[in-house]
Write a structure and sequence with these properties.
single chain; about 350 residues; alpha/beta; QueA-like; Thrombin, subunit H; 2 domains; 6-stranded antiparallel beta barrel; 17 strands
């Protein structure tokens, strides 16, 4: 299967640059995965498509303000560091700019010296290991000095940091938001819970590999990035109970989907799990647990449009995307949503 099989034409003006005022007022395209039929709704209509006995699986990872702007020492040339993975001992794997001036031994300063750092290793993929020095708690330093690491296709400055967090975000560690969850309000979640839909949480810390384009012609040649994820015991139990009584497992976002599909047994049963996943889901994949998916509209030729095509069929998905373009849906992180059931 070719990467070009997942191309569609997307006008630049449909890439949402800012979140809409009310989270759950975004549009919702409901797609029947078997027939390919679609319906145009709004996200606040979601409860109409859920049933008592279903369970909703949410990714509670919280985005770190992981983008640090500072100066190189000595001399004061500008630098940028993006935190990716905590490697322990105050050391993080990072993306850095300008790469040519950030070799091993380079010293950096952020926030008038409140936070200093040194590059300690260059990795084969070009990332750097950077060791930080600071007083107090690192997360508090980040909250003060860091910026939200918005995707490269968003050019506008984010006025409210919390709009790039889900209302249920809890566990710090992501370099990007699990964006399908951005549409939920606390009130909508309570309405869903009160109608007999159970809610469970997993954690997958989203890496920037999410935005990495597929450069190979054959999709099977693409090397998928690894991300750390956790399925708590109570969530594993909830999924097993839901399946046993005939309910549906509805994942919010491709990250929740990839988490449960990574650790599910072949018979669809779950157990508490934690570890790194590089699962790559594309057409031909047989879903072991997931029944329905809430997701945003994705980049052409991306691993994410391949994942939704595995669930609903490539032809159905591309036809629905063409319809979304015609109807001027908003695309990507701050865009509108799709329910595939």
């Amino acid at each position: 299967m070719k990467t070009s099989d997942f191309y569609f034409d997307l006008p630049q003006e449909l890439i949402a640059q800012t979140p809409i005022e009310r989270r759950d007022a975004s549009r919702l395209l409901v797609l029947d995965k078997l027939t390919g039929e679609w319906t145009h709704r709004h996200f606040y209509d979601l409860p109409e498509y859920l049933r008592p006995g279903d369970c909703l699986i949410l990714n509670n990872s919280r985005v770190l303000p992981a983008r640090l702007l500072g100066q190189r020492l000595p001399g004061g040339g500008a630098c940028e560091v993006l935190l990716l993975i905590d490697r322990g001992n105050k050391t993080w794997e990072c993306l850095v700019r300008p790469g040519k001036r950030m070799r091993v031994g380079a010293k950096l300063s952020f926030g008038d010296g409140d936070l200093t750092a040194q590059v300690v290793e260059e990795l084969p993929d070009g990332n750097r290991l950077v060791r930080f020095d600071y007083d107090g708690i690192f997360l508090e330093v980040l909250e003060r000095l860091g910026k939200m690491p918005l995707p490269p296709y968003i050019k506008a400055e984010l006025q409210d940091k919390e709009r790039y967090q889900t209302v249920y975000s809890k566990v710090n560690g992501s370099a990007a938001a699990p964006t399908a969850g951005l549409h939920f309000t606390k009130e909508l979640l309570e309405k869903i819970r009160s109608m007999g839909v159970s809610i469970g949480y997993v954690t997958l810390h989203v890496g920037l590999g999410t935005f990495r384009p597929v450069k190979e012609d054959e999709i099977t040649d693409h090397e998928m990035h690894s991300e750390y994820c956790v399925i708590p015991q109570e969530t594993a139990d909830l999924i097993n109970e839901t399946k046993k009584r005939g309910g549906r497992v509805v994942c919010v976002g491709t990250t929740s989907c990839r988490t449960i599909e990574s650790w599910a047994a072949e018979d669809g049963t779950m157990k508490a799990s934690a570890g790194w996943t590089n699962i790559f889901i594309y057409p031909g994949y047989r879903f072991k647990v997931l029944d329905a998916l809430i997701t945003n509209f994705h980049l052409p030729e991306s691993t994410l449009i391949m994942l939704v095509s595995a669930l609903a069929g490539r032809e159905h998905v591309l036809a629905a995307y063409e319809e979304a373009v015609r109807k001027k849906y908003r695309f990507f992180s701050f865009g509108d949503a799709m329910l595939i059931q």
